[in-house]
Amino acid sequence: MTFTPSSRPRRLRRTPALRAMTRETVLSAAHLIHPMFVHEESADSPIHSMPNVVRHSLQSCVLAAKEAWALGIPAVILFGIPDHKDEVGSQAYAESGIVQRAIRAIKAEVPDLTVIADTCLCEYTSHGHCGHLCEVAGHWTVDNDPTLELLAQTAVSQAQAGADIVAPSSMMDGQVATIRGALDAAGFSHIPVMSYAVKYASAYYGPFRDAAGSAPSRGDRASYQMDAAGGYREALREARLDVQEGADFLMVKPALAYLDVIRLLRDEFDLPLVTYNVSGEYALVKAAAQLGFMDEKRTVLETLTGMRRAGADAIITYHALDAARWLREP
């Protein structure tokens, strides 16, 4: 039987050169953001639930930042782990806080690297929540409006330390407007706000809570982070509010279970769109690779390419250093 199709798509997949020439989606180191944990200790500390990820000392976070820059990664995002935690997360906005010192140290050595500061309180509070804790009708939750002032103080202190971008992640109503107003009033109108606009109350954050010691001691985050089954309307509403309040970037977190939401925001808004390939997504691939179930390199690059194809302009990923190295290979 003779097969005579009018088109043969396989023709354009025949060689590596043809496949490269016809690709629509490009993934490069320039699309990656390297997340780093920084603690007060003088030595690095491994994170057992996140193989090859550590809590950096101040000295090693600078070395890691230099490595990222040398690999073509344009930005890092910092998460601080203080020695002292209290009810209001005061080390988040202290002039001598661990993130503030890390920002100064990195900018002194790698001035052209973009340093993003995660603007939240959960790593700094004794109760592990993202702000001022209160009890409502027998349930513990974050008191929204008092928390806004603490977030504004944190953002300004990060900008004063030299952060290029502040990234509020607590999902408080009005956080972008409050932070934008505080930055402008303090003379930092040039500092962008990267909003965690659509952030879900996800099981995929488990290893991060281990790394940062930020698991809630009572209650949960379901009253302020989004419901996985909330649907598209809630995602659009949250993102639209942040745009109206002056966000410069939008973010969807996590990534893998929400690729449809990334595409939704990409089609709806013209701001730069970031997604966070979170700790649990990273740990799943690492575990499968260590057991010999999956090819780590191919899996990671395919996953990150999928996030780009969905519409992400930038990807925060714990795979960043490895991915940048692999992308340099023939």
Automatic annotation (TrEMBL):
The name this protein goes by in its record: Delta-aminolevulinic acid dehydratase
InterPro entries the record matches: ALAD, ALAD_AS, Aldolase_TIM
Biological or metabolic pathway of the protein: Porphyrin-containing compound metabolism; protoporphyrin-IX biosynthesis; coproporphyrinogen-III from 5-aminolevulinate: step 1/4
Keyword line: Heme biosynthesis, Lyase, Porphyrin biosynthesis
SUPFAM superfamilies documented for this protein: Aldolase (SSF51569)
Assigned EC number: 4.2.1.24
Complex and partners: Homooctamer.
One Pfam family of this chain: ALAD
Catalytic activity, as annotated: 2 5-aminolevulinate = porphobilinogen + 2 H2O + H(+)
Top-rank EC class of the record's enzyme: lyase
Lineage of producing organism: Bacteria, Thermotogati, Deinococcota, Deinococci, Deinococcales
Family statement drawn from the similarity comment of this UniProt entry: Belongs to the ALAD family.
Gene that this polypeptide is encoded by: hemB
